[in-house]
Amino acid sequence: MTTLIKNSLLLLCLVYFTTAAKGQSTSNHFQQPTLSDQKSWSMVLLPDIQNYVKFQRNQPILDIMMNWIVEHQEKMNIKIVLCTGDLVEHDDIINPDRLKMDQTGKQQWEAAAKAFAKLDGKLPYITATGNHDYNIFSYTHKPKTTHFPLYFPSDKNSKNLELLRDVTENIYGDPSLENASYEWRSPHGQNFLFLSIEFAPRDTVLGWARSVINRPAYSNHQVVLLTHSYLNYKNEHIEKEKYDLDDANYGKSIWKKLVQPSKNIALVFSGHIGAANDIKKHIGFRIDNNSANKKVNQMTFNAQALGGGHRGSGGDGWLRILEFLPDGKTIKVKTFSPLFALSTTTQDMAWRKESFDEFDIQLE
Q: Model's pTM, two decimal places?
């Protein structure tokens, strides 16, 4: 082979691989999350984390999610983190079936507390309590008790203490963050009251919540309600559950007894629902008018059975980013996975772009 032919072949190969490389780089349009307006602030909504902590193998995925929040706190102007509950799979199990979970209840609570500890002293976070956080997993009639107060005491996170305003008694008769209110003023000058209530709240809890919301000091606040069992995937208020509990309220009665009669509950966030590998059965959204004829945006977001069902990855790292724009009315909702974003091999899966996963909310 002559030198000319060799050089020609070499040149052709160089052109081919350069073109291929360029094509590969330009075909990947992945972008890390950014604010659409640099004056915005954002909130992160975490779904139920039970399937991350019940298997030791899945716990690093939850760490990735928390590490991403800390890493992007400044860039995304993240001001607060909410979690929809079910922090563990089983509150008090001591002999787990290793096919279903390989961590005891104590180990699961320790893992959940350790994951949130990454935010301690950096960001306030508020979490609801879910059905799996109580000792009612067997569906038999029991008092609704939980180890939540032991692992999430009020002084766990100094940033929470700065915002904490009220708590009420749990089933033990002790004050607990299972039911708590937090007051916060946004960078845009809006006053918010975050209210977290227990799974299947008792009538006394709903009465306490009403009394807090109705205080004159909060009349001009935007109230954000965080609960667990509220909407199903058909966007309906959940009427009942299979748990044998006295004095229990679910979505429909929470709406009738607390949300609808209020004049300033603007947002309701919940989790709870999910079916193996079916995105649409993990989410819900609806808008209704409250007693003041103001719109209440109600959103359910979960991911617990995505990525292989209830024995899979725990939810593929999905979370939601809510960007609050400077107009004080518009919230941009986006659904993102820090897990998929880690590698160029999976970055094209890091965003969910369907209309039910990326949309705007308007506050009144």
A: 0.91
